[in-house]
Amino acid sequence: MNELKELLPYLKMWNTYVDIGIIAIIIYKAMNLIKETRAEQLIKGIAMLLIATKLSEVLGLHTVYWLLKNAMTVGVIAILIIFQPELRRALEHIGRGGFFVKGELLDQEIDSMLDEVCIAVAQLAKTKTGAIIVIEQATGLNEYIETGTKLDSIVTHELLINLFVPNTPLHDGAVIIRRNRIAAAGCFLPLTQSQNLSKELGTRHRAAIGITEISDSMVIIVSEETGVISFAKMGRLSRYLDTKSLGEIIKNSIKAKESRQPIWMKWGARNEQ
To answer: Fewer Cβ neighbours under 10 Å: the N or C end of the chain?
Structure first.
């Protein structure tokens, strides 16, 4: 009993360290989620209001303090409404690391699909045909698939090229690939609200960034003005790619995602195949 009593202060100390560590991780993750989004500026605004509230209390500005204090009380509800996209993104981010994991594709299936996509992208870039191809990952894109025409077709470069031929019914939307099949074409995607993008980026690029801000999908874009190939993931855009570097980026992204999965998730995915 005496030994346990001696250990109690150390256990309490470790609890404090664990508490601080968990809070630090939560803050770090939250900062990464809101980085370069509208929420970043809103957080700064809230911080300024908190500072103003404290200053008004210290300086004895009773009316100002009363107004700011009541505004902050009502502000909790306002934050939930204003931050709705960011909160949704955060919950989806947590869910992607959760217990429900889809079966992984075999390496040869991934290679085959990417080869067909890269051949199509090379041809589309050569002819300056605008295109946007979304590769679904853990986050389901059913609500966006529903906005287009469902196909459930094998991924071939011939089909991808034909889907984006100008003045055809499906050329103006996005193609969404689920696993190794084309789920739908002519799909509408949400546009990013970021104000930090170059003005030379058009609707396709904004849609590509928009869908990657709210999901873990990967998006390939071909500009119809310049034929430049771009790649979007996690709200970030890489431009001026060739098909070789594009294929490597996508493969590395898929491998990095698989390596982060716990062993029991990988085992479950193999059993589904």
So the answer is: N
